[in-house]
Specification:
By secondary structure, the protein is mostly helical. The chain has one domain. The protein is built from 1 helix and no strands. It starts with 17 loop residues before the first helix and ends in a 14-residue tail after the last helix.
């Protein structure tokens, strides 16, 4: 069974990269896409 979900994570350090965020969450399952949005 395929399951798609989106997760919002706030209050990240400005030093956080998409790669490190992906690596962190892949410990818990497959990560297909990461987007860091800043304002």
């Amino acid at each position: 069974m395929s399951q798609n979900s989106k997760l919002y994570v706030g209050n990240l350090s400005f030093n956080t990269t998409e790669e490190t965020l992906k690596e962190t969450f892949e410990e818990h399952g497959t990560v297909n896409d990461v987007k860091i949005i800043t304002d």
